[in-house]
Write the structure tokens for this entry.
Amino acid sequence: MPLLDLIKNRKSVRNFLDRPVEREKIMMCLEAARLAPSACNSQPWTFIVVDDKQLKEKLSNAAFSGIYSINTFCKMAPVIVVVISERSKFFAIAGGTLRGTKYYLVDIGIAGEHFVLQAEELGLGTCWIGWFNEGAVKSILNIPQHKKIDILIALGYYDREKLGPDHSREPIGKIASFNAY
Ligand SMILES: Cc1cc2nc3c(=O)[nH]c(=O)nc-3n(C[C@H](O)[C@H](O)[C@H](O)COP(=O)(O)O)c2cc1C
């Protein structure tokens, strides 16, 4: 499928099927993420794939309760991918500090979207998850407390018929211009 069609097809999935995801497909998504560009080629990420049913249940019960319950739908997802933001290379941190830019977040975003688009191509649905109990995720997966988890990705098969309506986007004329602001 041409890339633009794939991008048009992708929507956040919040209604997953109870069907395991093949490891080979997850590996392809990870490979797409691995190849992402990053500032100074820092590759400031580690992906922990939680596909063990019991562990995933424990993780999602803890991560999406209380004030995070709005994301309870993630409990349905057969796979939760935890994206740990690792330390960038010195020049990316130094340059980022001078520029007032958190390059590592840009990097994580690109790698995450590589993962998401590869998943879409394989017929898998995803949802970026930024609202979750980070402390609970760390303690359940034995991730050191000083590490930062900025984002999770819920992953799984889904029923396209049950997707919500298309999300509106601003028109090109409002978000882009040539040669001037
Ligand atoms: C960084 C980031 C964090 C997000 N966090 C959540 C979240 O916690 N819960 C959720 O349901 N959707 C979350 N989303 C999904 C957005 O709500 C969704 O991408 C947006 O509404 C556009 O819809 P679409 O993905 O279907 O095109 C997040 C998306 C991004 C990029």
Q: What stands out?
A: The two ends are 33 Å apart (CA to CA). The chain has a mean pLDDT of 96. The longest helix spans residues 103-121. Helices lie at 3-9, 23-34, 53-63, 90-99, 103-121, 134-141, 172-175.
